[in-house]
Amino acid sequence: MSGTDLPALHRRYVALAGRFKAAWTFHQFLQGLQKIFAEASVPSHASELTEIHAALKNVSENLTGGGGEAVAVALDRVGRQLDRTMSVLSAADVQVTPPLLRQFFERVKSYDDQILAQMVRFYLGIAAEEGIAGDRLDKVDFLLTKLAEETDRVTGTVAMRDPSRLRPIFEGFWAAFEDITAEADWVEDRRAEVGSFRKELDHLGDIESFTASEIVPRYREAKRLLGRYLFHPDILLSVVETNLAIKNKIRGDLRVEEKRILEESQRILSDDEARAAAQAGGPDLSQLRRAYDEVERKQRADNLKVEDLAFLRREVEELRPRLLINPPLAEGAEGGGDSADQLLAPYLRELIAALEETDNRVPPKEAALSRELFHLRLEAREVKAFRRLYVASEGDAEHERFLLESAALRHRVAAEATEISEILDETLVTREAPIFERSRRTTQLAEDYVQRFGTLVENAVRAGNFGEAQQLQLLRMRLIRDYSGLWLLVFRPTN
Fold first, then answer.
1. Is 0.70 surpassed by the pTM of this model?
2. Ranges of each domain in the chain
3. Where are the alpha helices (DSSP H) in 37-162?
């Protein structure tokens, strides 16, 4: 084998091995998809991929020896077999809708960045012949965003990872397109164009304005028009940053409005007077019912669009005055105070950081008394709530999060009671120090949590889960004891 032949054969081998790894990862994804979603019909490709793997292994063992012609023939054979397998996998991918792919990765937590990167490389591998558009653009877009994000466990918001860590991965994607180049000025213009969508988000305060702006379809079209240039590292970094900004917008401001619209829709549909008025020839509720059912169906399929919510909102706002049903007060509207998330975030963050330092193999009761957690005065059930949320993904996530939030609330109560007790001047009598205003909000929040605990205890008893009811009652009484002390400091009469 000549010195010229060896590097060429080695490059061919590396390229084929990379394509095989992407194909194998996608094959494993299909198999995992069928395990979770029984309705997903996934053909088996294991035998072909096993043969390709064996052939590549044989090539690697003979690559540096003699017989260059035999190695070249083997690589040709592997290439043809891999082309056929990629075509079959590509056909199977047509059956994988974007919502199904999203549901899979939202449900399966045990994957690393390499799996996401190899999934993207699989789509790049079939892009040369078929291109990336439509559903495939949506799927690649989701994978790239998932690869670029990191989630704050306390607030639930997502942020972009360090670009210096992402750039080498994105440069690897761009290297797949050997036949195209881009002028620096053109790239900068496209990067700024993508960034302009992030700036526009700041002016879209509700679902109506968000929908009317058509920012999502316009942004999606801008990404489609980029074609393969979407994967230029500089452009792609701006794309994922904008993707995350839109994701946070929908999860944050718009998710609150989503909850309100659904609750008000249900309120109208379950209102006896509204139903009676409809039956007596008044406003027809059937369209509202269809819109509400459609939103619920799309929620279950993880395919809910902002446009669906906007339509439901218009139905509600049109019916409300005709039915003489008043809209519910917005959360926190009376006092304009902070939300529970804002009040508890720093304490919840400290709590989670401490729990992450513990050994998850230790029994919860023992962990609660450990050096890392002792100062937080946690109960075993609260340690278990953390593990169910962040370690094993078990139980009702909303229920377990509430228990962690109540523990963080006790932590806040204790901190504020200590701060007030240490005040030695006349503000203790006049209650003019800022700590008293903060503590009044804390006691109001604690009253809400105590009421919610009462409901949870009742539900557990009705379900016959007496062990859980007992643990919840313990947590409820601990919160009552702690916040009662703070209440006395804040509201005790001054004379």
1. no
2. 1-131, 132-139+180-328, 340-491
3. 46-62, 68-93, 98-107, 113-130, 134-148
